[in-house]
Write a structure and sequence with these properties.
Blueprint (H helix, E strand, L loop, with lengths): L5 H12 L3 E3 L12 E2 L8 E4 L6 E6 L8 E9 L7 E10 L5 E7 L6 E8 L3 E2 L3 E4 L10 E6 L10 H12 L9 E3 L18 E2 L2 E2 L10 E3 L2 E3 L3 H11 L3 H9 L2 E3 L14 E4 L2 E4 L1 H14 L5 E2 L30 H8 L1 E2 L2 E5 L3 E6 L26 E3 H9 L10 E4 L2 E4 L13 H13 L4 E6 L7 E2 L18 E3 L9 H13 L5 E5 L5 E6 L12 E5 L8 H8 L7 H4 L2 E2 L2 E2 L3 H6 L2 H10 L2 H6 L9 E5 L3 E8 L3 E9 L16 E8 L10 E7 L6
Parallel strand pairs: 1-7, 2-9, 11-12, 12-17, 23-27, 27-30, 30-32
Antiparallel strand pairs: 3-4, 4-7, 5-6, 5-8, 8-10, 11-36, 13-14, 15-16, 18-19, 20-21, 22-23, 24-29, 25-26, 28-29, 31-32, 31-35, 33-34, 36-37, 37-38, 38-39
Helix pairs in contact: 2-4, 3-5, 5-6
The chain binds fe (ii) ion (FE2).
Fe (ii) ion (FE2) binds next to loops.
């Protein structure tokens, strides 16, 4: 039995979580609930979330409740799939006010164990059976394996990655199966196309599907977007009917964090941005938070109260943000109320080796500066998607720029006023969350401190200054370029530097970042600066490819102008086949791309590598889809990238279809004062330009 007593659990959990609790019985007993599986009445399946050593959250939705105010359900949790040894039974209500979703927190459980659960209505009609697993006890020295994923789009692709994950997990002995799935966001995409929007029914290589229709909704530019909580709920309902996603949620506990698309594509705090449309959207942020809370079982904090039955949405209005504090946080009261309606950053401990710190990259962040209209003169059509690094540093730092903020920024012949001169440095975490994060990081006693961060942390840069004369006009910047614009930690230099300096100064070892969002696989070393500045890694960094949403390699294949003089850097062709040459540009530099184009020889291309461009990158595949698995143990952390072919259609086979490659990146645990090292092994398949 857990050492935490029943009374402590109920008091603590009630304070933190609300009242729908179940406590395990001292003696397991056969189920006394009549149960006939009716998946059609629980169309979004079941889920579990945020396991602790002694408790876990269970979830379902009574999908056929119609206009009933409440549906009474019985939740059961057992030590076996046949429910011969039931350890907890609880009554719970699925309220119309929560879209008939239902959460139950079960406590008094054994650490590091598998359990099975189900929900049943008063007529004996039940959900499918889910499996979950409690966290290992804090002194448990066994290795921990978990997967991390992001970016699934059921309108544009198939979730074969989950099928592959299930298939591989089933082959392993229980002790080596995945502990949980860390979902780093873009669980849904709120920008939706209807059949009439794109008569050809295709985007890039994708056949469009139309499972989502917003009851309210509005059209903004080319997309339909959600307006009300009913709209955001419609997204989750549709997505959770995907059979592979639903099977994954029924097999493992999920630990979810939103990225941008759970609220709004280019949104920040409560602001929506659609190209040049910028508008306040406090009502939509609250609606997005409400639907997320209803559909993602997670130990998060609601401003409205601790009830597990429903989300108490604060009444807010859409009011322009015009006053910001010294950390870029909009002080407009509706902004603060909407953001504060749900606080999702949190940590999870799993055994002796894993502390997982999960942060929110969108609710508190300041406006991304390089995307502002005033920054437009800092890009050039001759160099698509590249932005001068020195300008990015000026814009990121605002008034904190070392040596004083310059009045203007030069880019070729252009002189652009520094519109960030008097503003605070960019923040992604915001002051309060950052203080929490640094305190937790410093206080962690686990072997590995893993930062679950939806936004990538590795610089993505290119060396357009090395494009040979005569190919196109010379690069107008002063040196290196940032690729793909700003938005994540790859260009949040000041804040990333502050965090990595804390890691270095406090001698924190075993520091690893895991991210999503980029729709590409990246492995490398976490460092605040790159040459010509000092390159001093403080940890390892891994980014997973998307489950199914299209990535930039696919976009370039379709969109990049065929006759552009630099096509070989972005979407080259070798031997009559399209190649993901943008990988080489980001990892080895423009001369590698040109050498590859000229010779068709990848080894020769790598020999032309610019060693100063990306000493932090060991692997990058902008065309990869799939998932990543992190295994942490006493001596090392190992991250495996499981890459599948572009998931255009659902695989018919139980393994989820073929693999493109499997690559493992191993980081031996380093000691204080030592430098982290990354070793790499291709286990199967061919990552081609990714190495
Ligand atoms: Fe995404």
């Amino acid at each position: 039995m857990s050492r935490v007593g029943r009374r402590d659990f109920l008091a603590g959990a009630a304070a933190a979580m609300g009242a729908t609790l179940a406590w395990s019985a001292p003696t397991p007993a056969r189920s006394r609930t009549r149960w006939v599986e009716r998946r059609d009445l629980f169309a979004q399946g079941v889920a579990s979330g945020d396991p602790a050593p002694d408790s876990v959250l269970l979830w379902t939705r009574a999908s056929s409740a119609g206009d009933a105010d409440a549906v009474a359900l019985t939740a059961e949790l057992a030590e076996d799939a046949a429910f011969e040894r039931v350890v907890a039974t609880a009554s719970a209500r699925a309220l119309a006010a929560a879209d008939h979703t239902c959460r139950v927190l079960v406590g008094g459980l054994q650490p590091g164990r598998f359990y099975w659960y189900r929900f049943t209505n008063a007529s004996g009609e039940g959900s499918r059976i889910g499996r979950t697993r409690t966290a290992a006890a804090a002194d448990d020295g066994a290795p921990v394996r978990f997967s991390f994923v992001s970016c699934q789009n059921v309108c544009e692709g198939a979730q074969n990655a989950y099928r592959r994950m299930i298939f591989e997990d089933e082959q392993r002995p229980p002790a080596e199966q995945l502990a949980f799935v860390l979902h780093l966001g873009d669980f849904v995409y709120e920008v939706v196309e209807y059949p009439e929007d794109r008569p050809e029914g295709k985007r890039y290589d994708r056949r469009l599907r139309y499972p989502v229709h917003f009851p309210d909704g509005e059209k903004v530019l080319a997309w339909h977007v959600p307006v009300t909580v009913a709209d955001y709920r419609a997204l989750y309902r549709a997505y959770l009917q995907d059979p592979d996603l639903q099977d994954a949620r029924a097999r493992w506990p999920f630990v979810p964090m939103w990225d941008n698309h759970e609220f709004s594509w280019q949104g920040w705090q409560t602001v929506q941005v659609f190209r040049d449309i910028v508008r306040p959207a406090q009502t939509r942020k609250v609606a997005a938070n409400q639907a997320w809370w209803e559909y993602q079982p997670a130990r998060v904090r609601k401003a409205g109260g601790t009830s597990l039955e429903r989300f108490e949405a604060p009444a807010v209005r859409d009011v322009k943000l015009d006053r910001f504090d010294e950390h870029g946080l909009g002080q407009e009261p509706n902004n603060l109320a909407a953001i504060g309606s749900l606080t999702a950053y949190r940590s999870l401990r799993w055994g002796r080796h894993l502390d997982l710190l999960i942060t929110d990259q969108h609710s508190y962040r300041s406006e991304e500066p390089s995307g502002r209209a005033a920054a437009a003169p800092l890009s050039s059509d001759a160099y698509p998607d590249l932005f001068p690094e020195e300008a990015m540093r000026v814009l990121d730092a605002g008034h904190a720029h070392p040596g004083g903020a310059p009045e203007s920024i030069r880019f070729g012949d252009a002189t652009v006023p520094n519109f960030r001169r008097t503003e605070p440095p960019q923040t992604i975490l915001g002051a309060e969350q950052k203080a929490w994060f640094l305190e937790r990081l410093r206080g962690s006693r686990a072997t590995w401190k893993v930062w679950g961060n939806s936004a990538g942390t590795l610089d993505w840069r290119a060396d357009p200054q090395n494009v040979p004369a005569g190919l196109t006009t010379p690069w107008p910047g002063g040196g290196y370029a940032c690729f793909g614009g700003g938005g994540d930690y790859g260009t949040a230099y000041v804040e990333r530097g502050e965090i990595y300096d804390a890691v270095a100064k406090d001698g924190i070892t075993g520091f690893v970042t895991v991210s999503g969002d980029r729709h590409s696989f990246w492995a490398g070393l976490a460092a605040k600066d790159l040459p010509p500045r000092a390159f001093e890694p403080v940890g390892a960094a891994f980014i997973t490819g998307s489950i199914s949403a299209p990535g930039l390699a696919e976009a370039f294949e379709h969109r990049f102008p065929k006759d552009h003089p630099l096509r070989a850097l972005y979407a080259g062709e070798v031997g009559g086949k399209p190649r993901t040459t943008v990988n080489l540009m980001l990892h080895h530099g423009v001369r590698s791309c040109l050498e590859y184009q000229r010779t068709g020889d990848l080894q020769a291309a790598r020999r032309a590598s610019n060693a100063d461009l990306a000493p932090h990158v060991r692997f990058v595949d902008m065309g990869g889809h799939g998932y990543a698995v992190l295994r942490v143990a006493a001596d090392a952390a190992e991250c495996e990238f499981v890459c599948i072919p572009r998931p255009l259609e659902r695989s018919e086979t139980p393994d989820g279809g073929p693999l493109r490659y499997r690559v493992a990146h191993r980081v031996p645990l380093w000691r204080k004062g030592e430098r982290p090292q990354l070793e790499q092994r291709v286990i199967e398949g061919d990552p081609e330009t990714a190495l």
